Amino acid sequence: MKATFGCVATGPACTGSREFSHLDHAGMGSKRVPSYRNGVVKCTGHHHEYHQHGREAFEERFHVKLSAVADWLAREFDGDFLLMAEEPPIGVWRLR
Predict the structure, then answer these.
(1) Where would you tag: which of 14, 59, 67, 82 has the fewest CB atoms within 10 A of its CB?
(2) Residue 44 domain boundaries
(3) Whether the model pTM is above 0.70
(4) Helices 47-62 & 66-78, crossing angle to 10 degrees?
Protein backbone atom coordinates (compact mmCIF):
# COMPACT_ATOMS: atom_id res chain seq x y z
CA MET A 1 0.00 0.00 0.00
CA LYS A 2 1.37 3.38 -0.99
CA ALA A 3 1.55 5.99 1.77
CA THR A 4 -0.08 9.33 1.08
CA PHE A 5 1.06 12.35 3.03
CA GLY A 6 -1.13 15.40 3.34
CA CYS A 7 -0.27 18.84 4.53
CA VAL A 8 -0.61 19.27 8.29
CA ALA A 9 -2.52 22.48 7.63
CA THR A 10 -5.22 21.04 5.38
CA GLY A 11 -4.81 17.27 5.39
CA PRO A 12 -4.60 14.95 2.37
CA ALA A 13 -6.69 17.34 0.27
CA CYS A 14 -3.74 19.72 -0.13
CA THR A 15 -1.96 18.98 -3.39
CA GLY A 16 0.91 21.44 -3.00
CA SER A 17 4.51 20.29 -3.07
CA ARG A 18 5.48 18.57 0.17
CA GLU A 19 8.47 18.99 2.42
CA PHE A 20 9.50 17.31 5.65
CA SER A 21 10.81 19.69 8.23
CA HIS A 22 11.33 20.32 11.90
CA LEU A 23 9.44 23.38 13.08
CA ASP A 24 11.46 25.19 15.74
CA HIS A 25 8.86 27.64 17.03
CA ALA A 26 7.38 26.05 20.14
CA GLY A 27 9.65 28.09 22.42
CA MET A 28 7.96 31.25 21.20
CA GLY A 29 4.83 30.28 23.11
CA SER A 30 2.37 29.38 20.36
CA LYS A 31 0.36 26.23 20.88
CA ARG A 32 -0.56 26.33 17.19
CA VAL A 33 3.05 25.70 16.19
CA PRO A 34 4.48 22.19 16.68
CA SER A 35 7.62 21.52 18.70
CA TYR A 36 10.91 21.21 16.84
CA ARG A 37 10.93 17.55 17.83
CA ASN A 38 7.85 16.95 15.73
CA GLY A 39 9.02 16.32 12.20
CA VAL A 40 6.04 16.97 10.00
CA VAL A 41 5.14 16.68 6.37
CA LYS A 42 3.57 19.87 5.11
CA CYS A 43 3.16 21.61 1.83
CA THR A 44 5.49 24.47 1.00
CA GLY A 45 2.46 26.66 0.30
CA HIS A 46 1.38 26.60 3.95
CA HIS A 47 4.92 26.97 5.36
CA HIS A 48 4.49 30.72 5.87
CA GLU A 49 1.52 30.12 8.19
CA TYR A 50 3.79 28.46 10.73
CA HIS A 51 6.16 31.42 10.63
CA GLN A 52 3.23 33.82 11.05
CA HIS A 53 1.93 31.92 14.11
CA GLY A 54 5.43 31.87 15.61
CA ARG A 55 5.97 35.57 14.93
CA GLU A 56 2.65 36.53 16.52
CA ALA A 57 3.35 34.39 19.59
CA PHE A 58 6.86 35.89 19.93
CA GLU A 59 5.54 39.45 19.74
CA GLU A 60 2.79 38.71 22.24
CA ARG A 61 5.15 36.99 24.67
CA PHE A 62 7.95 39.59 24.58
CA HIS A 63 5.86 42.69 23.78
CA VAL A 64 8.14 43.74 20.95
CA LYS A 65 7.79 43.69 17.17
CA LEU A 66 10.10 41.14 15.59
CA SER A 67 10.74 43.56 12.72
CA ALA A 68 12.08 46.13 15.25
CA VAL A 69 14.46 43.51 16.66
CA ALA A 70 15.64 42.59 13.15
CA ASP A 71 16.18 46.24 12.19
CA TRP A 72 18.14 46.94 15.38
CA LEU A 73 20.32 43.84 14.93
CA ALA A 74 20.99 44.76 11.30
CA ARG A 75 22.20 48.21 12.35
CA GLU A 76 24.37 46.82 15.15
CA PHE A 77 25.99 44.06 13.13
CA ASP A 78 26.60 46.36 10.18
CA GLY A 79 29.07 48.33 12.29
CA ASP A 80 31.09 47.45 15.34
CA PHE A 81 28.66 45.23 17.21
CA LEU A 82 30.82 45.30 20.34
CA LEU A 83 30.13 49.00 20.76
CA MET A 84 26.41 49.24 21.43
CA ALA A 85 25.82 52.91 20.68
CA GLU A 86 22.05 52.69 20.45
CA GLU A 87 19.63 51.22 22.96
CA PRO A 88 17.68 48.26 21.62
CA PRO A 89 13.92 48.52 21.09
CA ILE A 90 11.80 48.02 24.20
CA GLY A 91 11.76 44.35 25.08
CA VAL A 92 14.98 43.31 23.34
CA TRP A 93 16.86 43.34 26.65
CA ARG A 94 14.82 40.29 27.61
CA LEU A 95 16.45 38.36 24.78
CA ARG A 96 19.98 38.90 26.08
Answers:
(1) 82
(2) 1-62
(3) no
(4) 90
